[in-house]
DNA sequence: CTGTTAGCGCTTTCAA
DNA sequence: TTGAAAGCGCTAACAG
């Protein structure tokens, strides 16, 4: 049986309050401090966080509810968030929504019952209703990577539409006009599609229907199938914007399989600087999201919200995502 | 403020014990059952798990301490383990050891203080000492993917050395003799190297020093650098065994960069059927680990251990990893 | 600075 | 079946 604070009392003859105060960094006469420290060492005492939580009503644990734990993107976010939290003495309880609203609601409910102090959420959809249990429980939620249809929550995103716009501007600058886009049908996909449209309109380029793909299927498949279709066209695009990591994987599979050369035959811009773009040949030109900043900002806001409650209005942080040139875009000399 | 069991008492006029019994699935007169259910709905009551844990001494939370959360391998294991645990009503607290023994010890200590019921551990090294805090606390630990220098713990691994042996046998069957190996310097790397040796000895093939690489650097770098060296050799190998996913990424980078053709100029066998092998061209021939089984077996044993304590001896489960043929190995017609 | 006392919200004897 | 009471291990007033 693990030692308790009462064992320390028997060992030292001091009162519980004194020991508790010592444990929480309060002032104790140095003579007593010594005694306590000895007893702690002797008994190998470690505070029971459960008991502590029951009275303080803080578990120093936050829930990380992620739309899809299998995606590399969330893995990296997880890594950074976990590091930030541990640095501040917080633990992280992880739940996978598996791209399903119902599971998302359950995950949040689960976290609330576990009395987490706050929740970091990568939402599945724009629907705020799965979060209701956290709201009722008064548990703050910070949204990561995606907004939802409610401005009641703090939120850290990148400026998806202008990042996509800059990417397409770049393609156009390189001389491309026949540009296709493949995007997932959710928040980031839609935003990035908007940026694509804006850039093309600005340049006065008409985009035929068959250059625009979007879908709700698993992203890698979407990328793969869409690219296959694009390559069948008689009037093929010269460049493709792929709006997320998984889509890019599919696109690359299709390109490789077809024996088409990139960037010789087709140029490609993707999103997210994860492992593949680094190992592929040619190096992928991409929009790099500041993963570490997304995580650390999210954690910072969440902890502040936990400290201060609703003393400040919901924060909407939009981070800048830079375009990183690789070698997957061909520069077409203009006439 | 969230409703408590006392609010239910005020609402129903019943005793705390009765309500508690209902909550825990005990027998209650159906009349009272109704009352309680109504009150729960009306007050939106949800039990406080912290309070419950304090008295039952079970948190229904397990710790997942992972050597390196950034690796795709652990991400997939995480996903499966999390699903298994949630199915059984358990939560998962995640900690990253960041490939560091000290951080591993801290992570385990952290989990113990959080009163987790058990720990799933992908160890950083073979050293059992970081686990001591869990042992002292009487918290069961199940090792995943790697063994350590102690047979006191349950453990789920694959049969690394024979899987590697089969892979090399296959290369030899395909007519290769000049076979190089690149392995990380830790448990799985060493085991797989043993399999490599066994196969080569069996076939009576001498392996020159410069065909064997191992190192403690980050795996992707190791693969990249080693492959670069191999390609400089005048007497190049015709095939390479890469003993883990990250190493393979590096190897592929080096191959791509050098303009060497796979499998035309060089054949490659890797480990782990994750995303890259599926998107790369040619499809990588590899040893596929049964990720889902590793996770579910680990969870099963851990929960059993939590239930039954030391009533049964430490389990050592070794799962079979199958070789999956892709197109990255050239079949050399034998003379 | 120290100790006493009263809980946190729940489960669990034990007697009724 | 039910309820009163004790207590899980700790913190937080409040007196001393």
Short recap of the structure:
Two copies of one chain form a homodimer. In chain A, 46% of the residues lie in helices and 17% in strands.
Here the CATH topology of the largest domain in chain A equals Rossmann fold
* Residue windows where pLDDT falls under 50 for at least 5 positions of chain A: none
Secondary-structure element series of chain A: HHHHEHEHEHEEHEHEHEHEHEHEE
Strand content of chain A: 15-25%
Overall pLDDT metric of chain A:
93
CATH architecture of the largest domain in chain A: 3-Layer(aba) Sandwich
Oligomer: homodimer
Give the biggest sheet of chain A: 6 strands, parallel
Number of H- or I-type helical stretches of chain A = 13
- Superfamily at the CATH H level of the largest domain in chain A? Response regulator
Largest interface pair:
A-B, 52 and 52 residues
Domains of chain A (count)? 3
Can you tell me the CATH class of the largest domain in chain A?
A: Alpha Beta
The level of helicity of chain A is 40-55%
Strands ordered across the widest β-sheet of chain A: 2-1-3-4-5-11
Structural class of chain A: alpha/beta
Distance between the termini of chain A: 82 Å
The overall strand count of chain A is: 12
Shape of chain A: elongated
C-alpha-based Rg of chain A, rounded: 26 Å
């Amino acid at each position: 049986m693990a030692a308790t604070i009462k064992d320390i009392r028997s060992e030292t003859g001091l009162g519980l309050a004194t020991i508790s105060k010592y444990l929480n960094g309060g002032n104790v006469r140095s003579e007593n401090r010594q005694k306590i420290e000895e007893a702690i060492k002797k008994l190998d005492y470690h505070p029971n966080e459960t008991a502590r939580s029951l009275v303080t009503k803080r578990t120093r644990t936050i829930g990380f509810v992620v739309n899809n734990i299998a995606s590399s993107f969330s893995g990296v976010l997880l890594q950074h968030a976990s590091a930030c939290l541990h640095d501040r003495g917080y633990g992280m309880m992880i739940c996978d929504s598996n791209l399903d609203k119902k599971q998302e609601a359950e995950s949040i409910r689960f976290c609330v019952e576990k009395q987490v102090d706050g929740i970091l959420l990568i939402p599945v959809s724009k629907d705020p209703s799965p979060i209701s249990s956290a709201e009722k429980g008064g548990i703050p939620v910070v949204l990561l990577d995606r907004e939802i249809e409610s401005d009641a929550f703090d939120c850290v995103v990148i400026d998806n539409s202008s990042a996509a716009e800059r990417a397409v501007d770049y393609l156009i600058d390189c001389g491309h006009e026949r540009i296709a886009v493949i995007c997932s049908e959710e928040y980031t996909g839609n935003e990035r599609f908007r940026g694509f449209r804006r850039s093309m309109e600005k340049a006065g380029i008409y985009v035929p229907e068959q250059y625009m793909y979007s879908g709700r299927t698993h992203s890698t498949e979407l990328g793969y199938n869409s690219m296959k279709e694009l390559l069948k066209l008689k009037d093929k695009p010269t460049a493709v914007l792929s709006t997320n990591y998984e889509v890019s994987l599919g696109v690359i599979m299709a390109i490789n399989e077809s024996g088409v050369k990139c960037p010789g035959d087709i140029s490609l811009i993707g999103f997210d600087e994860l492992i593949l773009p680094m190992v592929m040949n040619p190096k992928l030109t991409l929009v790099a999201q500041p993963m570490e900043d997304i995580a650390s900002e999210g954690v910072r806001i969440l902890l502040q919200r936990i400290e201060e409650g609703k003393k400040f209005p919901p924060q909407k942080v939009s981070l800048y995502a830079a375009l990183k040139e690789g070698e997957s875009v061909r520069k077409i000399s203009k006439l």
